[in-house]
Amino acid sequence: MKHIILSLLLLNVLALTSCSVLVKNNPSKLSKLSSTQQIAINQLGYLNKSEKIAAIPNVTASQFDVINAKTNKVVYTAQLSAAKIWTLSGNDSHKLADFSEVVTSGHYFLRVKGVADSSLFRISDDVYDSLSKAALRYYYLNRSSTPIEEKFAGIYARPMGHKDDIIGYHPSAELRYKGKRIDSQKGWYDAGDYGKYVVNSGISTYTLLAAFEHYPDVYKKQTLNIPESEDNVPDIINEALWNLEWLITMQSDDGGVYHKLTTREWPGNEMPHEDQRLRLMIGKSTAASLNFAATLSMASRVIEPYYPNKSKQYSNAAIKAWRWALLNQTQYYEQPSDIKSGEYGDHYLKDEFAWAAAELFITTKNKNFYTIYKEINIDYVAPAWRNVSYLSLSSLLFKAKDLLSKQEYEALKIKQNDLADIYLNQHKSSPYNVAMQKSDFVWGSNSAALNKAMVLLQAAQINKNNDYKNAAHGLVDYVLGRNPTGYSFVTGFGTKTPLYPHHRISHSDNVVAPVPGMLVGGPHSGQQDNCNYLFNEPAKSYVDDWCSFSTNEVAINWNAPLVYVLGALSD
């Protein structure tokens, strides 16, 4: 009941349309069994022509019914699959129900003899619209250096936190600036803490800008109700700009980029405006400089129609950071002994060099950058802050076709296709119809799922192949409820969602419901926080508790692929 009340609260406050509100009118009875014995579905619903799969506990029944919730009549009946076991979730067996043939818009639920009816779900081509908006609005609600106003945020309004106009220098950043202060305003809080980190910020900002660059029609129509919504610039561009305007302040006069802006210790369990600790520029690194060069270069071309002067500024800053990185190729970030905030350390930088070279080539059209990119000769995996290799391939495929020979472009398509085929085969061979392997269940496993979905959706678009799209849908379904935990992992969206994310604002704001639209990290068996976990299996080791920073934290780089994937599905 608490979940239903919170879903209703979020609906009323933010005027978001989520199918979770319909649970109170569900003619079926919600299961009183444990989550492992319930029907697992995408709790938001399904696009009209998408693949539609549910996981059913291994009951003796051999068939299932799809019931129209309005008429209470059976609209589709089919056979369940044979029983299957997904070892990553333990020894529980299940059957799969495929109702992809149901394509008529409406509200439905599943009925299988021997288990409680599923919760309601919706079939519609706008089923993800509200979530898409909330996932992007999360960035506004996580802004630094500004009041979050009631007319834009409702009950999530709060005073300005961290103006960041008097930032000091840690010795690891600049010995020569001891006692000096600098202005480094704006930006987003990185995760559950209040730090701002260039490395993680880079991939996050890039992914939002890529969503716009690849699917501009989707985001030109989307209005977020943020302070900039009344201008003639798409809201996603203005939201990204809030962070870009912080990133540009992180560049030193020599071209190198400071690694992060944080306090020495983790902040307390307090609201942003209550944290009065001294904040510092910490470290200067090759990784930060290359992330900066790639992101600012890409941003300069995306914002150019709207902010031509900033576009030139960003392009020049990107080239300056690139030159510094070439002269300082192994200046790795090492955490100082008196610093306890996030590290984001990385000693393998071939992928960052390749990404920056690719973005600079696309933006400047100087083929010397492409020559450097080819010479690096990297392997590709789904993107993450520690490995950004795929971002170079993605940008080249979408934006460099006219800059390359047909042979060069086809070679890139083959590399992308090879990676997408790996994930497609994982989907097809999975007992749970989800392209998740044991190695994916790491800190932020849900973002691993969505970054794979991003690769697959790009392959679907480039190759006009719906098999890739089906595999991507499987990953979206997984994140939104078709998983062994029974959770939809996005706050406020679904019939069972996280209530206690590791997010200091949600923990400290005296609002019952957490900030909506936040993707939590998701299950994995590391359990680094020593919380109480009921299960140890990788796909079930999750707990909805503030204590669980290893499975229930939120982060800007985890929400970004959610924004991208939902935009691609809406295109």
Concise structural overview:
The chain is globular, with a radius of gyration of 23 Å. With 571 residues, the chain is of the alpha+beta class. The protein is 38% helix and 9% strand.
What report would you give on this structure?
The chain is an alpha+beta fold. Helix content is 38%, strand content 9%. It has helices at 2-14, 129-141, 150-153, 198-214, 216-221, 235-247, 286-303, 308-327, 350-364, 367-376, 389-399, 406-429, 445-463, 466-479, 504-508, 556-570; strands at residues 45-46, 53-57, 63-68, 73-79, 84-85, 93-98, 106-111, 121-123, 168-169, 196-197, 257-262, 280-285. It has a five-stranded mixed β-sheet, with no helix packed on it. Strand 3 and strand 4 form a beta hairpin. Helix 9 runs parallel beside helix 11 (389-399), helix 12 packs across helix 14 and helix 13 runs parallel beside helix 16. The longest helix is centred in the last third of the chain and has 24 residues, at 406-429. The two termini are 35 Å apart. Mean pLDDT is 93; it is low at 1-36.
